[in-house]
Design a protein that fits this description.
homodimer, alpha+beta, about 15% strand
Chain lengths: ~700, ~700
Amino acid sequence: MIRIAALACLLATCLGLGFSAHADEGMWTFDNLPLKEMQSQYQFTPSADWLAHVQHAALRVKDGCSAAFVSGDGLIITNQHCIGECLASLSSPKRDYTSDGYYAYSREQELRCPQMEMEQLTDSHDVTAEMSKRLKGLSGDEYADAFRDISSTLEQVCADGDTHRWSCEVVDLYHGGRYVLYKYRRYQDLRLVFTPEYAVAAFGGDPDNFNFPRYSLDVALLRAYDRDQPVQSEYLALATSTPSVGELVFAAGNPGNTARGRTLAELKALRDDDLTPALVYYSELRGMLEEYAHEGADQRRMAYANLGEVDNLIKSHEGQLEALQDQTALERKAADEQALREWVLADPARKAEYGDPWNAIAVAEQRQHALITRYRMLEQGWGLESRLFDYARLLVRGVVERDKPNGRRLPEYRDANLPQVEQMLFSDAPVASDYEELMLGWSLTKLREALGADDPLVRKVLGRDSPEQFARRAVDGTQLDSAANRQRMWRDADFMEISNDPLIVLAAKVDNAAREVRKQYEQQVLAVIHSQGEIIARARFARDGTGMYPDATFTLRLSYGQVQGWQEDDRKVPAFTDLAGLYARATGSAPFALPPRWMAAEPQLPAATHLDFVTTNDIVGGSSGSPVIDRDGKLVGLVFDGNIHSLGGDFWYDGDANRAVAMDDQALLVALRKVYNMPALADELVTGHIQAANLAPKASGQ
Amino acid sequence: MIRIAALACLLATCLGLGFSAHADEGMWTFDNLPLKEMQSQYQFTPSADWLAHVQHAALRVKDGCSAAFVSGDGLIITNQHCIGECLASLSSPKRDYTSDGYYAYSREQELRCPQMEMEQLTDSHDVTAEMSKRLKGLSGDEYADAFRDISSTLEQVCADGDTHRWSCEVVDLYHGGRYVLYKYRRYQDLRLVFTPEYAVAAFGGDPDNFNFPRYSLDVALLRAYDRDQPVQSEYLALATSTPSVGELVFAAGNPGNTARGRTLAELKALRDDDLTPALVYYSELRGMLEEYAHEGADQRRMAYANLGEVDNLIKSHEGQLEALQDQTALERKAADEQALREWVLADPARKAEYGDPWNAIAVAEQRQHALITRYRMLEQGWGLESRLFDYARLLVRGVVERDKPNGRRLPEYRDANLPQVEQMLFSDAPVASDYEELMLGWSLTKLREALGADDPLVRKVLGRDSPEQFARRAVDGTQLDSAANRQRMWRDADFMEISNDPLIVLAAKVDNAAREVRKQYEQQVLAVIHSQGEIIARARFARDGTGMYPDATFTLRLSYGQVQGWQEDDRKVPAFTDLAGLYARATGSAPFALPPRWMAAEPQLPAATHLDFVTTNDIVGGSSGSPVIDRDGKLVGLVFDGNIHSLGGDFWYDGDANRAVAMDDQALLVALRKVYNMPALADELVTGHIQAANLAPKASGQ
């Protein structure tokens, strides 16, 4: 699965830079499509209406996925793996929606996801001139402050005082080549309508992840509400049949971040200081959670609510690491970089204008090497893995930050982002104390390991406790497990009165050190990479001109391609799988076990129904949940993964082997009708409107 | 801790190649010491007697450590972390020697370690001429077969028909520059006399591992027996006082393997195809075992018997990886390599003689990349982690191999090695079924992940089972948990009759594939690296002459250096720690908790007694348990670790920061007398002879 974590999309990973594209390559902005290439290769040019329609139907899932409206009554399609947090929040020891799926047979049964948010891109506006004017000649702190000020101002004006309804964001395309102000309509009341059993959504589990042939129904349907009424929306109608091999298809979604324009020094740093440590960290977490899952039903539920993402992260990191260990590819990259450097050096004027941004970035990467461990542990949460701690930090920082002028705050506390903070903080998702203790204790061990037992902060935090003892006392003693308490603390100006809460105390103890290393990291690493990368981008523009696509930035893009298998060594991988293949692969043992209702339904299901398919669309993490659309603008499938070769897609696109993996809509319709007895929901998908049967409450048909 | 796993010392990792050494650098063979340098730097030249004495007192611990005789009655000193397997084997739910330590207050209480073996180097004999004659001009299969044949013949002649008493081994020094036949006296009846609580031996645990200041008493005393009587041996007498800063000290031990002569391609392959995947694998295992330890006392005991080694492996791999990510060091390496290549190319005759071994090795490393995962999973046991499976494989292969002529067998089944195989196989150490299930189930998951769910062998092994289901049935159904059954199977020629044992069936199913990939790996990777490395070594010899030390090969070496702290950034790290420091660091929480008897003894202990110290000796993994010896040939300490900078020691020696970490003998004496009430044992150490008090049985004084 190819979801990204949106918070990982920091400046450094969201830098964009373009290339001259190969056939089917590219994650294009809607206003700069390679129309000529599309026309010449596929004899199709999307109209302005086609594009506007698709744009308005497409959605961004705030924490790292894509989605789309699929009925005029606010029905939304995305992947099950994109709503894991919602399922975990709604589950309890008695009802495990993560494992069992969820089926709303009436609108009253539609369950609100406590912390979910989606955004619809309604408007965009080029602000390059304003931004460039304010940023010109600045660097370091001044640059970062000015960037923050101007974008904050632009975003505030754009949201027009209604940050609950609108979210605005200055997006940096082409690595500073273009700044665009995106305006989103926010949807925060999202209710779960349908998602199948985990065993079906994630059929094949980790072994099949990033592989094909693939047999998953990785889908979820939600409904957006506004003031308790279904949202009326533009939507993608379902195509009436499965696409054919070679057929032109589009994917509209929010690829998270690509690094196709990064320097060699950045890629090496990514390999050594990012991917490798993350693999080690998450592998240990995986081992722990796998074993924790054996300790009881509750533990199993909590572990599995998180394991999917951990497994996925490990596999995708391994794929990226493998790509970055490819000596040939790195040498190609080095040659490309060298050519541009020489082009700059060849002319004194260019030399004066551009300087040596490559070296400046290499130096910044050395700083990164020195800072990254502390930054990750203290600020990115590796050493403080706990939802309760996250609450504590939001509260502790919230007091300080909200006192500052908007433009001077940490970005996450700007007015425009406060609704999301409050949504997190006030969520009534239950807190599993045992799990919190496990995670906090473990991650404090990692903190001590990374910074050393003699680090003053580690000593200040742990005192004479072991990490486990500390975690037990903190979780036992905190009041932050209650949403009401958190609300009171957030709103109570006289905040210090509750500051003897052990997690508040912890967050306060850590805060200075965490802010300090964040500041160093942002100034000495991210800002340098950002500003120097902009210089490289300008040089490349100057040499090559435009006509390229920007590196992905977790904003709306359109990719085009065709339904097509590929050649894997001496084996031809077909474009489609079908239900017959699903049953053939079902061994009865997880992750290859089908739920009883699927086993029972087998005789009723047309075996030849397509289940999943692959396309040449250029997608990466964040594209999960992207609708796959035919030339008529109809929905034919839903991206939920890439094949193993797509993992190098962060660095380059290889049209021969790089494939997007999508679920076929037809499989969803068949499942709704024949497996789940939800004909009204299937009809809503087909007609585009809510069915009378779903308007009134009704007993569950399960 | 710096123990190595002896089995990891395959051809590739044991290749040796020397350098011109810097002050204190080098792991020297006893017959080729840098006497001039030693004399000029330390005004000391060891005599032939001095060297013979040290050599005869020194021991090699078969599974990856060093040790030494410390009394004339067979008393041996090594590290506690070197006898973990013994402690686990002897422990049970009722008596946890791993955690509680062990204290024999009489000879009758000395407990035999079921699978332990030590070796004393008695003789060595240069066989370069014989080997070179037979190997000349051979490559690939022919080379490997001839190597096996000739070394097997030499070893057999050397052991003179008594493989229970003698073990012989052709050792490849200077990467084929010199072959030496080493003859060892074997000790297989080793009995545990004393080892402290784990909390003391591993005080500071993983956080303090590879760090200094350090406060561990990582020691174990064993006694070698022959026909039920203590072995009479040469031994190292204890020095009467602690060494002083700047004092010349020697370490005599068996550094496992260094890679100082490896090519750049080998180091990159080590980084990408070895260290990184191992880190990921063992991190997951660590997470699992840490959590498993929470599930009960038995689970805790089993987990902790293995976790120390896993933690250690992770930390040492991280240190090595960090070293190999050092761009400057790699560039220096590249320059050194380039200079030798150019020297070869500069002369047509040299070009004709040496060819391009660097490229040949780079090609072999590409083969390694293609083969390594399968090799590791099937042949090195990553996909089949279980002691019961190891037994099954020994039995299944034993039948086939013992039918072959000695020289054609897999090396581990040659006559000379059969005693060790039998010792493993007939061990009566109890098998913990629950733990076996855990490990087998988990590792089969890794096997499926690594080879893919569609791999034919994976399908053949798992059928419709999940890895956990398979592991449960196999462990429940096997008869291999009984040593008597294993003995019967090993000796019963009509072996097939018991072949419906599920683990025997598994071993048989896997065997062809495992042998096949092992053969490919040995021929296409190891043999090429070996023979081409030999060519590079010859070229280097031709250019630079001798006077170098060979890369470590887990054979006896002497290093020299001085007791000395180092400068860590702006902090001066002192050479010694003392008991006062130990008590100051004890927080009461593991791994910084002292056992009650240590807390009680504090007033009786002289606070200024030195506990641990650091020296500039050039040591690496395998040196654990090396005696630290003064110029009088007296024992002053016991190596048990290196500092964090020593981890780059596999690739280069940095005298400014690379330090060996040793326990001071004086701390051991104080502990025996004042904490453990074992004065007779302390007296044996001081006098060199067993004390009357220990000759007769006596109730435990605990």
